[in-house]
């Protein structure tokens, strides 16, 4: 085996870990793969004899690339009228393939990725690397060019934001599906009271595109959400139950054309969040497990 073949084999061993890091940093499979490819290009141009810890070195490189992507994304979003939601991982049954299962370890639901998107890029990097992957603060400090104490504060702010959100869905998938089915049935039947019965009073619905164009990207409160659900009741018959990032959700495909992926967060037997991914580019790239 040549030195390059050996290096490529070592890199492939690290790929699953790097993809988990990048997906938590970016919430996008395509961008995660771009970050990993950039890490390989940089590794191939580096004298590997100078690298003491290949896994740590690659994690640092991927983190730096993700940081640049997050900063560019934030600047671009300031110019866009649309919203942004993570790229979902959708499975048509209970059997998520091994690669998807690795990505979804530690309950990385869409709701968590939505909260992570509200953090500044340095906060997100600090929280993800330290709290999710146990990277020491001094190593993160070298990536951000800040002191370890400053990085500790960044991670702490991110941690408070995450803990302040209601992200932990009911562990029982059957219960999640029962609530999701009750919601869809009530929407299909035009049952306003039935919708209120399964919606948390503080439920929030988000979408990455305004449909229709003058509609808000975010709706809060059970009554407001129920009214919106009735507005789109004609789509309910085209909803198919799926797993979205390991939790109950739906594909909506009128006349066989994929229109949206809906990710539901069910806490205490009620829906606390619904995230609608309708971006055509994301839907077109969607790979169903």
Features:
alpha+beta; Nuclear Transport Factor 2, Chain: A; seven-stranded mixed β-sheet; 289 residues; Butyryl-CoA Dehydrogenase, subunit A, domain 3; 12 helices; single chain; elongated; 2 domains
What do these coordinates show?
The chain is of the alpha+beta class. It folds into two domains: 3-90 and 110-164, PhyR, sigma-like (SL) domain (Butyryl-CoA Dehydrogenase, subunit A, domain 3); 173-285, Nuclear Transport Factor 2, Chain: A. Helices cover 54% and strands 15% of the residues. It has twelve helices and seven strands. The protein has helices at 3-26, 29-44, 54-77, 98-103, 110-117, 121-133, 137-144, 148-164, 173-189, 192-198, 222-231, 280-285, and strands at residues 90-91, 199-207, 218-220, 239-244, 247-252, 260-267, 270-277. It has a seven-stranded mixed sheet. A hairpin with a 2-residue loop joins strand 6 (260-267) and strand 7 (270-277). Helix 1 packs across helix 3, helix 2 packs across helix 3 and helix 6 (121-133) packs across helix 8. The radius of gyration is 20 Å and the shape is elongated. The protein starts with a helix and ends with a helix.
């Amino acid at each position: 085996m040549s030195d390059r073949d050996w290096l490529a084999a070592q890199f492939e061993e690290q790929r699953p870990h790097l993809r988990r890091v990048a997906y938590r940093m970016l919430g996008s499979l395509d961008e995660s793969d771009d970050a990993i490819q950039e890490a390989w290009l940089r590794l191939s141009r580096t004298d590997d004899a100078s690298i003491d810890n290949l896994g740590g070195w690659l994690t640092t490189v991927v983190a730096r690339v993700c940081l640049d992507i997050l900063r560019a994304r934030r600047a671009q979003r300031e110019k866009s009228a649309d919203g942004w939601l993570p790229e979902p991982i959708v499975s048509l049954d209970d059997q998520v393939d091994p690669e998807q299962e690795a990505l979804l370890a530690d309950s990385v639901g869409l709701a968590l990725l939505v909260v992570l998107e509200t953090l500044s890029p340095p906060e997100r990097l600090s929280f993800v690397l330290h709290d999710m992957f146990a990277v020491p603060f001094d190593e993160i400090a070298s990536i951000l060019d800040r002191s370890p104490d400053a990085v500790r504060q960044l991670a702490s702010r991110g941690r408070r934001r995450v803990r302040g959100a209601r992200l932990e869905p009911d562990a029982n998938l059957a219960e999640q599906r029962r609530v999701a089915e009750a919601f869809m049935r009530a929407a299909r039947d035009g049952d306003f009271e039935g919708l209120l019965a399964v919606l948390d009073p503080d439920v929030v619905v988000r979408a990455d595109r305004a449909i229709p164009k003058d509609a808000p990207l975010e709706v809060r409160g059970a009554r407001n959400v129920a009214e919106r659900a009735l507005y789109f009741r004609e789509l309910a018959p085209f909803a198919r139950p799926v797993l979205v990032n390991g939790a109950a959700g739906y594909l909506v495909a009128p006349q066989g054309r994929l229109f949206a992926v809906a990710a539901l967060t069910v806490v205490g037997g009620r829906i606390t969040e619904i995230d609608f991914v309708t971006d055509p580019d994301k839907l077109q790239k969607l790979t169903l497990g």
